[in-house]
Amino acid sequence: MTRTYIDSGVLIFAARGVAPVSDLALPFLTDPTREYVTSDYVRLEVLPKATYHNRAVEAEFYEAFFRANILCVAPSPGLVESAMEEAVRTGMSGIDALHIVCAVSAGAEEFITSEKVQSPIHRSRLLTVISIFPAAQAGPDQAAARGDP
Question: Where are the chain's structural domains?
């Protein structure tokens, strides 16, 4: 089994079911050769908005995903400090760095993201970072595809 950390954008794409991005995300969430780990940071990124906007099906999708994870990393000052170091080293955003260090803390071998390969998150050398978007694909604007208001 490959221990895998799924970034929040991948979950959002899959949960909202908007093709073609949901078609790119879902195979990473249904792969029987993977075991999943997550963090409270992912939970915080996806559940509040779905709940606030009364998107019950979307919220239940997230809850089912979280129940299927074998480990959920809790926030800690040590993770924040490690994330700061990784963000400075790579130029990635703070939340992306938090996700990377949580993945490493959970023993993940792979980090699956909706960030395209040009994104700074792919500069991390702490574990393998895989985009759901094919490298040659220009793709839709990510925020618009997620349907963020």
Answer: 2-137
Which residue, 121, 136, 92, is CA-closest to 5?
A: 121
pTM for this structure?
0.89
* Top-tier CATH class for 2-137: alpha beta
Range 36-54 average pLDDT: 98
Q: What is the DSSP letter of 128?
A: E
